[in-house]
Amino acid sequence: MSMELILAELRSLPGVLELAPQPGSEHPELSWGDHFFYYAPDGAVPQNRQPYATIVTKDYPDDTASRLSDPDRWRLNIHTGPRLFTELVGSAPEDIDAETVDYGETDVFLPHPLYGAYGWVAVVNPGERTTARTIAALRDAHDADRQRVERRRASGS
After folding, report:
1. What is the rounded CA–CA span in Å between residue 67 and residue 49?
2. 31, 56 contact by CB (below 8 A)
3. Rg (CA), the chain
4. Strand, helix or coil at 110?
5. Residue 60: strand, helix, or coil
6. DSSP readout, 13-29?
7. Which pTM was predicted?
8. Which residues are paired to 23 by β-bridges?
Protein backbone atom coordinates (compact mmCIF):
# COMPACT_ATOMS: atom_id res chain seq x y z
CA MET A 1 0.00 0.00 0.00
CA SER A 2 1.46 3.32 -0.94
CA MET A 3 1.63 6.30 1.34
CA GLU A 4 -0.53 8.18 -1.15
CA LEU A 5 -3.32 5.61 -0.78
CA ILE A 6 -3.26 5.93 2.99
CA LEU A 7 -3.19 9.73 2.75
CA ALA A 8 -6.17 9.64 0.38
CA GLU A 9 -8.09 7.40 2.77
CA LEU A 10 -7.36 9.62 5.76
CA ARG A 11 -8.17 12.79 3.85
CA SER A 12 -11.58 11.37 2.90
CA LEU A 13 -12.74 11.05 6.51
CA PRO A 14 -15.29 13.63 7.71
CA GLY A 15 -13.88 16.37 9.93
CA VAL A 16 -10.27 15.32 9.42
CA LEU A 17 -7.51 17.86 9.82
CA GLU A 18 -4.12 17.05 8.36
CA LEU A 19 -1.06 18.88 9.59
CA ALA A 20 1.74 18.36 7.06
CA PRO A 21 4.70 20.61 7.89
CA GLN A 22 6.68 21.76 4.87
CA PRO A 23 9.99 23.55 4.39
CA GLY A 24 9.71 27.16 5.41
CA SER A 25 6.74 26.61 7.71
CA GLU A 26 6.69 27.58 11.38
CA HIS A 27 7.05 23.91 12.34
CA PRO A 28 10.39 22.37 13.30
CA GLU A 29 12.48 21.26 10.33
CA LEU A 30 12.57 17.72 11.71
CA SER A 31 8.80 17.42 11.16
CA TRP A 32 8.86 18.55 7.53
CA GLY A 33 7.43 15.86 5.25
CA ASP A 34 5.54 14.06 8.01
CA HIS A 35 1.75 14.01 8.47
CA PHE A 36 -0.38 14.34 11.62
CA PHE A 37 -4.14 13.64 11.66
CA TYR A 38 -6.81 14.95 14.02
CA TYR A 39 -10.56 15.06 14.13
CA ALA A 40 -11.02 18.83 13.98
CA PRO A 41 -14.01 19.87 11.87
CA ASP A 42 -13.40 23.52 12.76
CA GLY A 43 -10.07 23.36 10.92
CA ALA A 44 -8.02 24.45 13.94
CA VAL A 45 -5.06 22.34 15.04
CA PRO A 46 -5.92 21.07 18.54
CA GLN A 47 -3.72 22.41 21.29
CA ASN A 48 -4.82 19.98 24.00
CA ARG A 49 -4.50 16.53 22.44
CA GLN A 50 -2.30 14.35 20.29
CA PRO A 51 -3.13 13.26 16.73
CA TYR A 52 -4.83 9.90 16.28
CA ALA A 53 -2.58 8.90 13.38
CA THR A 54 0.77 9.99 12.03
CA ILE A 55 2.99 9.16 9.11
CA VAL A 56 6.70 9.64 9.70
CA THR A 57 9.25 9.53 6.92
CA LYS A 58 12.51 9.67 8.80
CA ASP A 59 14.20 8.70 12.04
CA TYR A 60 13.83 11.10 14.95
CA PRO A 61 16.69 11.44 17.45
CA ASP A 62 14.93 9.29 20.07
CA ASP A 63 13.13 7.03 17.57
CA THR A 64 15.46 5.09 15.24
CA ALA A 65 14.36 1.47 15.74
CA SER A 66 12.20 1.40 12.59
CA ARG A 67 15.21 2.29 10.44
CA LEU A 68 13.36 5.03 8.59
CA SER A 69 16.62 6.58 7.44
CA ASP A 70 17.00 3.66 5.02
CA PRO A 71 15.72 4.38 1.49
CA ASP A 72 11.99 4.10 0.73
CA ARG A 73 10.91 3.49 4.33
CA TRP A 74 8.13 5.23 6.23
CA ARG A 75 5.90 4.35 9.17
CA LEU A 76 2.21 4.71 9.84
CA ASN A 77 1.33 5.13 13.53
CA ILE A 78 -2.21 4.68 14.82
CA HIS A 79 -3.63 5.26 18.29
CA THR A 80 -5.79 2.17 18.72
CA GLY A 81 -6.23 1.84 22.47
CA PRO A 82 -5.49 -1.37 24.35
CA ARG A 83 -8.27 -3.61 22.98
CA LEU A 84 -7.50 -3.13 19.29
CA PHE A 85 -3.78 -2.97 20.01
CA THR A 86 -3.98 -6.47 21.50
CA GLU A 87 -5.97 -7.73 18.52
CA LEU A 88 -3.50 -6.30 15.99
CA VAL A 89 -0.21 -6.98 17.75
CA GLY A 90 -1.15 -10.21 19.51
CA SER A 91 -0.25 -9.04 23.01
CA ALA A 92 -1.54 -6.39 25.37
CA PRO A 93 0.51 -3.19 25.54
CA GLU A 94 1.72 -4.00 29.03
CA ASP A 95 2.90 -7.47 27.94
CA ILE A 96 5.24 -6.31 25.15
CA ASP A 97 8.90 -7.12 25.64
CA ALA A 98 10.52 -4.28 23.70
CA GLU A 99 13.84 -6.13 23.67
CA THR A 100 12.40 -8.84 21.40
CA VAL A 101 10.54 -6.68 18.87
CA ASP A 102 12.05 -5.98 15.44
CA TYR A 103 10.61 -2.49 14.99
CA GLY A 104 11.99 -2.38 11.46
CA GLU A 105 9.95 -5.32 10.17
CA THR A 106 7.68 -4.25 7.31
CA ASP A 107 3.99 -4.88 6.62
CA VAL A 108 3.17 -6.14 10.12
CA PHE A 109 1.46 -4.52 13.09
CA LEU A 110 4.00 -3.71 15.78
CA PRO A 111 3.86 -1.78 19.01
CA HIS A 112 5.02 1.78 18.41
CA PRO A 113 8.71 1.92 19.43
CA LEU A 114 8.07 4.74 21.94
CA TYR A 115 4.31 4.83 22.55
CA GLY A 116 3.26 1.19 22.35
CA ALA A 117 2.49 1.16 26.07
CA TYR A 118 -0.12 3.86 25.41
CA GLY A 119 -2.00 1.84 22.79
CA TRP A 120 -0.18 3.01 19.65
CA VAL A 121 0.57 0.54 16.85
CA ALA A 122 3.00 1.07 14.01
CA VAL A 123 3.32 -0.39 10.52
CA VAL A 124 6.49 0.19 8.54
CA ASN A 125 5.67 0.27 4.82
CA PRO A 126 2.13 -1.15 5.05
CA GLY A 127 1.50 -3.65 2.27
CA GLU A 128 -0.67 -6.53 1.18
CA ARG A 129 -0.77 -8.27 4.59
CA THR A 130 -1.94 -5.20 6.51
CA THR A 131 -3.87 -3.06 4.02
CA ALA A 132 -7.48 -3.95 4.88
CA ARG A 133 -6.92 -3.95 8.64
CA THR A 134 -4.88 -0.75 8.45
CA ILE A 135 -7.72 1.12 6.76
CA ALA A 136 -10.23 -0.22 9.31
CA ALA A 137 -7.93 0.74 12.21
CA LEU A 138 -7.54 4.26 10.82
CA ARG A 139 -11.30 4.65 10.58
CA ASP A 140 -11.69 3.34 14.13
CA ALA A 141 -9.05 5.78 15.41
CA HIS A 142 -10.72 8.67 13.60
CA ASP A 143 -14.11 7.73 15.04
CA ALA A 144 -12.68 7.40 18.56
CA ASP A 145 -11.10 10.86 18.28
CA ARG A 146 -14.42 12.27 17.02
CA GLN A 147 -16.23 10.73 19.98
CA ARG A 148 -13.70 12.23 22.44
CA VAL A 149 -14.13 15.66 20.87
CA GLU A 150 -17.92 15.43 20.95
CA ARG A 151 -17.93 14.27 24.61
CA ARG A 152 -15.71 17.19 25.58
CA ARG A 153 -17.94 19.64 23.75
CA ALA A 154 -21.06 18.19 25.36
CA SER A 155 -19.53 18.45 28.83
CA GLY A 156 -18.23 21.96 28.21
CA SER A 157 -14.56 21.09 28.76
Report:
1. 27
2. no
3. 15
4. strand
5. strand
6. STTEEEE---TTSSS-G
7. 0.96
8. none
